[in-house]
Amino acid sequence: MRLRVPASMCLLLTIVAYLAELPEFQGMVTAERDSQEIRPIYIGGFFPIESHPFFASLPLTVQTAVNHVNNLTGILDGYELRMRWNWTQGSPANALRLLNDFVQNGPPVLMTWGPMFSSVAVVVNEVLPRYNIAQVVIASSTTLKDRARYPLTVQVSVDEDLLNPARVAFVKRMGWRRVALIFEDNQYFRQNMAKLAEKLLENGITVLTTEAVTNAEHPDEQIQSLKRHDARVIITAFYPEPAAKLFCKVYTAKLFGAKYVWILPGWYPDGWWRDLPDVPCDNEETATALDLHVAFDGDQAVSEVSRIDFNGVKPFPEQIEYLESLHNMEDNSRDIYAYDCLFTMALALNASIGELRQLDPARRLDEFNYGDQEMAQILLRNTLQTEFVGLTDRVVIGKGGVRHTTVYVEQLQNEHPVRILNYFADGEYETIPNATIQWKGSVIPVDGKTEIPILTQISLPFQISIYTAAGIGVMLSVIFLALNIALRNQRAIKISSPIINNLIVMGCLLLYTSVFVSGVDTSGITDGAFIVLCYVKVGLVCVGISLSFGSLLVKTYRIFAIFQKAVARFKKIDLPDKKLMSVVMALVLVDCVIVTLWVFLGQSTIRTINLDPKLSDTASPESETYIIPVLRQCGSIYEIYFTCAIYAFKGILLVFGVFLSWEIRNVSVTGLNDSKYIAFSVYIVGITIVLAVPALQVFVNNVDIHFCIFGVAIVFANTVVLCLVFVPKFALCYSSRGSQLHISLMDAPSVPTTSTSLPASCRDRNRLGELRDTLRQKQESLADLLRACQAQAK
Ligand SMILES: *[C@@H]1O[C@H](CO)[C@@H](O)[C@H](O)[C@H]1NC(C)=O
Ligand SMILES: *[C@@H]1O[C@H](CO)[C@@H](O)[C@H](O)[C@H]1NC(C)=O
Ligand SMILES: *[C@@H]1O[C@H](CO)[C@@H](O)[C@H](O)[C@H]1NC(C)=O
Ligand SMILES: *[C@@H]1O[C@H](CO)[C@@H](O)[C@H](O)[C@H]1NC(C)=O
C-alpha cells in the first residue's frame, strides 16, 4: 500500500504536469467544467447601412463592447453575452425580416440594440413588444416617446425634444421675439418642430412661419417664403445631406450674413457639408452660408476615459486602451453611443438577474422566451434605472425611457464647432471660458425690423407760424368788425351795406377758426373726437365760405343788377340788404343741410394710412428700428358724393361770382360802392380755391404741407378780402372825416369829375350826389343809345 500510494500520487502529478503543458486540453477541461455555469444569452442587433462609411464600423464597436462585458467580472457573471445581428440598410422591411429571423430561428433574443434610424425604429419597435423584446436604441424621435405604442423602447441618445427648451431659452437670452422654422418633413422632425413652435408661443415668441420641406432637393419655395416673412432668426431641422442642400440654396438666395442667424441641430458629424455629391455648391460656398451658425446638441463625450465606470466595475487596461482610441477618434459620436448603448443593455440584464431569481418560478436570463411578459417588464424597469459613466459621459435614463442630457450650444467658427454655452434644465445658461459667441455685425443681429407706429403731428414751426398768421387775421377781423359797427352811420360805410360786411367778417372769422381746428394736435384724442373734429372743420369751412364769399357775391350781384339792368333798361331795382342777407342765409342753410346729412348718413369711420417708415436711430441702423408715421383721416361710405356736392355747390358760386365780377369790371363808383375791390376779392378767392384744392389733394398724405397749404390759402384769401372790402372804406371815411363826400362815376375819362368842395349839409350833399348820379346815368344811356344808333346806321 505504501508503495502504491506514492506510485499513484506520482502518476497523478505527472498527469497534472502534462495537462498543464497542454493548453487545448486545459481549455477543454474548463469548457467541460463551465458548461454548467456559463450560459449564453442573446441580444439582437439592427445595424443600419453596411456600405455607408458613417456606419460601417458599428458592428465591430458593439461586438467589442460585448467582448468587454464578457471579460469583465461583475457584469453578467456566469453568462456569455452573444449578439445576433444583420444590416437593415435603413429599411423597415429589412428590419422586419430580420426580426422574423430572430423570432423563427435560433435562440431567442432578450433585447435588441437599435434600430439606429428612427424611421426604422418607429416601425420595428411597434412590433417588438409582441415578442416581449425590450429595445435600447440610439434613434431618437418624438414618436418613439409614445409609451402606449412603444412600451418597451428606451432611447439612450439625445432626444431632439430635449433641445427645445434650450433653443427657447437661447432665443429669449438673445432678446429675439420672432423666429421662423424650416424643417425636413419627416416623422423625426415634424413633431419636434411642432413642439418647438408650441413652446416658443408659450414663451411669447412669434413664429413668423413654419416651412415644411417635402422635397429636400428643392427647398426654393420655402426659402422664398422665409424671405417674404423677413425671417432673420431661423431654426432648422434637417438630416445632414438635405441640410447641405438647403444651405446651398441659402447661399444662392443670399440669406446669410450679418442680418441672419441660422440655428441647426448640433449632432451632425464634423465637416458634414463637405464633398457631398448631390450638392451643387462647392464646399466654400456652403461654408460661407453656414459660417457662425448656432447649433444645439446634447451629445457629449466623457472628459477623461479614466472616469469611465460601469456602476462600480472599471474597465481593464486593455479595454481602456480601446476606449481611449474610440474617445480620440474624430467624429466618434455614433461609435461611442453604440458602445454605451450595449453597456446599458448589459447592465440592465445584470441587474435583472437577482429579480428573476425572486420570481415564481425563479428564472435565469437564458430561460427567456417570447411569451415572457413578466421578464420583459423586469428588463425594462432595470433599463430605465440604468446609471453609469460611459464614453458618452453619465448615462441616466428617466421614467419616460429617454436619457437625461445636458444640452449645449455651439457655433461654427472658422469651420469648426466651438462650444459656447451649457444649458441647464432650469432655463439658465453657463458660459464656457475662452469661448464667446461671435456675430458678423457689431451687435447681436435683430430678429427683424421693428416698426413703431406714431400718429403724425403737424410740426411745431409750421403750427406756430400758421397760427400766428391766423391770429393776426382774427385780430384784423375783430378790428374791422368793431370799426364797421362803430362807424355804421358814416355815409362811406353806410352806403356799402355794413350788415353784409359784418357777414363777411363773420365768415372770415369762421374760416380762421377752421385753420386753428385743423392744426390741433390730434395724436392724443380718440377716434370719436377725431371724427367730430373733421366735421367741425368741414362745417366751419363751408359756412365760412358761404358767409364771406356769399356776401361778396350778393354785393357784386347788386352792382351788376344796378348797372346792367336798371341803368340799361331804366328800371328801378329793388335789392335791399334784407333780401341779400336772406340769400346769404339760404346759402348757409344749404351748407348746413349737406353737412348734417353727411354726419347722419355717412357712417363715419377712421382711415389710418401708414406712411413710409423712417429709420428711428440713424446712429445704429443695424437695430432696424423704424418709425411709421400713421395718418388718421376721416372716411365715410358716401364721402365721395358729399364731397362732390360741396365742391359743386361752391364751384357754381365761384363761377357765378367770377362771371359777375367780369361783367362789372368797368363799373367804378367812388363812394357809392367798392365794385372794383369786390371784383378783385372774388378773383382772389377764386384763384386761391382753384390753386389750393388740387394742391391739398396732392399733399393729402403730408400733414405739414397739407396744413400749410390750407392755412396759407385761408389766411391769404381772408385777409386780402377783408382788406379790400374794408380798408378803402375806412380810408374814405377817414379822408372825408364826416365832412364831405361826393359820389361820382369814374369810369369814363370824358366825364368830368365833379369838384368836392361844396359846403353843404349832409342831406343836401347826398341829394346833390344823387341828382348828379342820375344825370351821369342819363348821359351814359344817351351815349350808349347814340353808339347803338351809329352801329345800326353802319
Ligand atoms: C480577458 O480578461 C483577462 C483578465 O481577466 C485578460 O488577461 C485578457 O486579456 C482579457 N481578454 C480579452 C480578450 O479582453
Ligand atoms: C444577413 O442577411 C443576409 C440576407 O439578408 C444573409 O445573407 C446574411 O448571412 C446575414 N448575415 C448575418 C450575419 O446574419
Ligand atoms: C451585477 O449583478 C450582481 C448581482 O447579480 C451585482 O452584485 C453586481 O454589482 C452587478 N454589477 C453591476 C456592475 O452593477
Ligand atoms: C483660456 O485662455 C487662457 C489664456 O489664453 C488660458 O490660460 C486658459 O487655460 C484658457 N482656459 C480654458 C478653459 O481653455
Automatic annotation (TrEMBL):
Q: Write out the GO biological process terms.
A: gamma-aminobutyric acid signaling pathway
Species this chain originates from: Patiria miniata
- Span-the-membrane segments of this chain are 464-487, 499-517, 529-554, 580-601, 640-665, 677-699, 705-727
* Name of this protein: Gamma-aminobutyric acid type B receptor subunit 2
Q: State where the protein is found.
A: Cell membrane
Q: Which residues form a coiled coil?
A: none
Write out the GO cellular component annotations.
G protein-coupled receptor heterodimeric complex
Record flagged with keyword Transport: no
Q: Does the keyword NAD apply?
A: no
Q: Which residues form the signal peptide?
A: 1-20
Q: Where is the G-protein coupled receptors family 3 profile domain?
A: 469-729
Record's keyword terms, sorted = Cell membrane, G-protein coupled receptor, Glycoprotein, Membrane, Receptor, Signal, Transducer, Transmembrane, Transmembrane helix
Pfam family example for this protein? 7tm_3
- CDD domains assigned: 7tmC_GABA-B-like, PBP1_GABAb_receptor
Tell me a Gene Ontology molecular-function term this record carries.
Answer: G protein-coupled GABA receptor activity
Membrane topology is: Multi-pass membrane protein
Principal location class: membrane
Give the superkingdom in one word: Eukaryota
